[in-house]
Design brief:
The chain is 34% helix and 18% strand. The protein has five helices and three strands. The chain has a three-stranded antiparallel sheet with strand order 1-2-3, with no helix packed on it. The relative contact order is 0.10. With 119 residues, it is an alpha+beta fold.
């Protein structure tokens, strides 16, 4: 029994974590709970506080959203507009962000005063 308490609970937690190939905390805690080690409660506490540098380096990053949240919640709430040149003519392309309804209007001049009446 002196051999069982030879190492501190923190050292035992680190060794178990490394011995089981940086395995999941839940599985190692379940194994320790089922053991007859006299310091199993302290080992479990140490396992929960364990911060392994190797696990931090190789852990998966948090998922980053590839798509943004919708801008509109109803029709005509948000309209995206773009001026495009098609066949040497300017057109105003408008898209409703909620319904994706699209309208293309020809523009005579690319000036602010010419665009206002089209809206």
């Amino acid at each position: 029994e002196d051999n069982l308490v030879k190492f501190s609970p923190n050292t035992i937690a680190k060794k178990l974590h490394r011995y089981f190939a940086h395995g999941s905390l839940e599985k190692i805690v379940a194994m320790v709970k089922s053991s007859s080690h006299p310091q199993k409660e302290e080992i479990i506490i140490s396992l929960n506080k364990l911060n392994c540098e190797e696990c931090v380096k190789t852990s998966k990053r948090k998922a980053i959203r590839k798509v943004g949240l919708p801008l509109a919640t109803k029709f005509d709430d948000c309209v995206a507009m773009d001026l495009k040149m098609i066949n040497d003519r300017w057109v105003l392309h408008m898209i409703d962000c909620f319904s994706r309804f699209s309208v293309v209007v020809p523009v005579k001049k690319k000036k602010y005063s010419a665009l206002i009446p089209l809206l």
